[in-house]
Design a protein that fits this description.
This protein is of the alpha/beta class. The chain has five domains: about 1-45, no CATH class; about 125-270; about 275-400; about 465-530, no CATH class; about 535-569, no CATH class. Strands 11, 12, 13, 14, 15, 16, 17, 18, 19 and 20 form a ten-stranded mixed beta sheet that branches. It has a seven-stranded parallel beta sheet with strand order 22-23-24-25-26-27-28, with helices on one face. Strands 29-30-31 form a three-stranded mixed beta sheet, covered by helices on one side.
Length: about 575
Amino acid sequence: MVKACRHCQQNFEVTDTDLKFLEKISPVFSGKKYLVPSPTLCPDCRQQRRLAFRNERNLYRRKSSLSEQEIISIYSKEKPYTVYSQEEWWSDTWDGLEYGREFNFSELFFAQFQKLSLEVPRVSLINNTAENSPYCNFADGNKNCHLVINSNWNQDSLYSTLILNCPNVSDAFWVLDSELCYECVDSEKCYDVKFSRECHECRNSAFLSECRSCKNCLGCVNLRNKSYHIWNEPVTPEAFEQKITELENWGNLQKFAQEFAAFVQTKPHPSTHSLQSEDILGDHLSRCHNAFHCFDGFDSESCTQMYDFVKCKNCTDGNSIDSGELCYENTSLIGYGNSFTAYCRDSSGLFYCWDCHSCQDCFGCIGLQHKKYCLLNREYSKEQYEELLPKIIEHMMKTPLLSPLTGGKEGGQEWGEFFPVVISPFGYNETTAQEYFPLSQEQVREQKWQWKEPENPDFSGVTKKIPAEKLPEIITEIPDDILNWAITCEISKKPFRIQKAELEFYRKMNLPIPHHHPDIRHEQRMVLRNPRRLWQRNCDNCKKKIETTYAPDRPEIIYCEECYLQTVY
């Protein structure tokens, strides 16, 4: 079945497999199945909508709504929500059932959910078992880390997203089990590697792309088990050390980066990246089976339209899902049989819930813990729940999908749709949606979505302001006093400061001080990753048709898997 997306108007396909999955996850009451309808948005627009509820990197200072103590939060101080610190939110001093109410059949469900969301306390951020790492989010077990996002079990690491088990790593994206790495993307088990991407088990190297088991290499692409190479050619150890030393200067580093980017374009790239996977269609999939249109997944099977996921089975349309099964249209989830949820953990049988943990069989609830048979945060008996919920679903089947805040018609019915973006607690530009589906302020306003105006950074204690281009070019000339400077980014002109741990890292790695704001550096890393989308094109060697994340009009040389392996081995 081919449908037109009601948001972007592009055609997309709903397969028989999709319909069977929707039938499988549809709830049954008294022998009657309440079918989840086929989607009205294309996969990209569905993902965009989910990501518009996920603020990962924008952290603010505000006061706890309970204790009035200053806390760090993903909710800026002007947001009209009740926000508790992590300790307060997880404590037994409050109960989400206090905010329960009866369902009003004269109102839209999403309007009632929005009212509930304005009252139930929200947790300031997710930063579990942290040690000296207050500015981390969607994180667990980090020690001495700063602005490490969506990352677990790291130590002494900075300004990174999606890193795991990494000591002394900075400015990285999707880096696993690595140490002493800087500006690396999609790499694993590396040591002392800088400015590299798609590398595995490499050491003491810089500016690598698609290299495996290499050491003491510089400016190399597609090498396997090599040492002391520059520009893919063997060199003496002395020549290697001399060139590496030259790159301790900012100007030399920038020139080499430009030369490396041009060199990469002359070498073939694999159409996609996968490891120990079969029957897959997507990119960056490891140990996956039967995964189609999926990206950045591990140890999963029978999944479609999944992104940033691990240990999932029979899941569709999810972002940041861990150990999910039979789940549909979720973001940030651990659980079984959940649909249309956000930030729910260790739960099952949830529909349209937010921030519920260790719960079962709940609908339209927010901030509950260890509860079951709840509707709009009101608890019922099993019999009452199973009698009332079908009536609510039937109500949602009849009510059009209206914006609870603007009254503007979005099309479709409420039942079977994820939360509309207009009720997101965040400005669109605060969320991960802006990273993968960037929009201008005008475009966001046209959709009646929120936009967050930037805040002025706190630069109390600054003794000097300096344009980045006037910084000393080598780290040995940087004084300790730089910690009190405000540096103006060469690109965005936004000021930023250097943290003490950051300065120590640059000195240890013999790296010059960066000239770009951390947000700009994050954007530059994102550009190095291909879109989460597949195109058809021909292998540039054997000419057979392939599906790849490289659009047909891009200049890179793209090989199918067979041709690429023959080239590098």
